[in-house]
Amino acid sequence: MQLSGKTAIVTGGGHGIGRALSIRFAMEGARVAVADIDSTAARNAATAAGGTPYQVDVSKESEIRKLVADVTAQHGQVDLFCSNAGIFIEGGIDAPDSDWERIFDINYRAHLYAARAVLPQMTARGEGYLLNVVSAAGLLTQVGSALYAVTKHAALALAEWVSMEYGDAGIRVSCVCPQGVRTRMLLGEDGDKDSFLKTGSVSPEEVADAVIKGLAEEKFLILPHPEVATYFQRKASDYDRWLRGMRRLRADVARRH
What we know:
- Helices cover 53% and strands 13% of the residues.
- The protein is α/β, with parallel strands linked by helices and 257 residues long.
- The radius of gyration is 18 Å and the shape is globular.
């Protein structure tokens, strides 16, 4: 997909990866709708991208449907829906149900709501693109957070299914699966949060570069950290060995903290 002349929606577009994608899509010639629950951040990012801001809570299907309807009314159609909004909550299987519900709403159900909202118009014209920002955690797992690992696996599974079901109808799907990215999620609000993923982390702009290349090639998996493909292959070829390695990583991270 080439973005020139296209209309793109980016959720979670006010900060981090979403902001970088919004600006980069605009640089490539797209009309960009920047959606974020933080209206000030959405407005600032939209100004930088020359786009239109929308305050949207992606955990509510009605708000995503209204977003799609408003952008379609303004520009005629939605060519690319980038479902980027996401959150991280630490915890294991004993995390409260309220945390599980909240993270499922944003990390998984928001992708489902986006697909429901845009696929009818996309299939009607025989083309369209869903770009889901997932995480390497969706391919591998996440030390310290069952909630993040499970919801990112779910988001990836949904994207796989949509690609299988709608690929022959002209719908393209890509999943962006980075490891550490230097955003508030990784570094914290003050930039001093400790994380084992800091080493080897990339900037949001580097993720955007990888996305533009991946969209041009229409690749399902877009990996800003190429080594993730090797880790994924190791996981598939010897699950037990991979799990032993992950237990060692978990123990190493626990020792550091």
